[in-house]
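Could you join me in thinking about how sequence relates to backbone shape in a protein? We need material for that, and I hope you will provide a protein of your own picking. Once you have written the record down, we can walk along the chain together:

…
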Amino acid sequence: VDFSELKGKVEKEERRLFAETVETKAKIDQLDAPPLQAIATDRYINCLKWEDIARLEHISSAQLYRFNTKMLEQMADILKIY
């Protein structure tokens, strides 16, 4: 495989990943509460661990998991998953 072919494959994958990130962020922005949006962004865009999110958002792990449950319920409605 020559360099230009490999570079083309990497660039194509980068474009796909960028498009998926934009789509994911658009769905996250539909959540009805800023804390839910922040948690979803931290987890699904920034790929942070749950314990890091709790520390960053200054909330307990228990509260984080309550927010996560609410966020997932809303996301199911946004994505029409039943």
User: Anything to note?
Assistant: The CA atoms of residues 21 and 41 lie 10 Å apart. The helical segments are 3-28, 34-45, 50-57, 61-79.
